[in-house]
Amino acid sequence: MRGFMRFLILGLVLLGLAIPAYAKKKVVIAGSTTVLPIAQKAAEIFMNNKGEADISVRGGGSGVGIASLIDGTCDIADSSRPIKDTELDKAVANGRSPKAHVIAMDGICVVVHPNNPIVELTKKQIKDIYTGKISNWKQVGGPDQKIVVVSRDTASGTFEAFGELVLKGERVRADALMQASNQAVVSTVSKTPAAIGYVGLGYLTSSVKAVEVDGVKPSKENVLTGKYPIARPLFMYTDGNPKGLVKEFIDFILSQEGQKLVEEQGFVGLK
Amino acid sequence: MKRFLAIIVLAGSVVLSFGRGFCFAGEIDILLQKLVEKGILTPGEAQQIATETKEQVKKEIAEGKYSSLPAWVQNTKLKGDFRLRYQYDHAKKLSATTPTDRHRGRIRLRLGLESKVNEKLLVGVGLATGLNDGSADASRSTNVSFSDSSSKKSLSLDYAFAQYSPVSWATLIGGKFKNPIWEPGDMLWDTDINPEGGALKLSKKISSNTELFMNTGILVIDEISNKDSDPTMYAVQPGIVQQLTEAISLKAAFSYYGFSGVKGKKLDGTAGTNSKTSADKLIYNYKNIMPAIELGIKEPLKALRLNIPYLALFCEYVKNIDSAVKDDNAGYMIGFKLGAEKIKKWADWQLRYNYARYAKDAFLDILPDSDRYGGKTGVKAHEIMFDWGLGENTWLGIDYYYGEQLKGNFGSNQSKPASVVQIDWNMKF
Question: What's the rounded Cα separation, in Å, for the pair A42 and B135?
Answer without folding.
Answer: 61
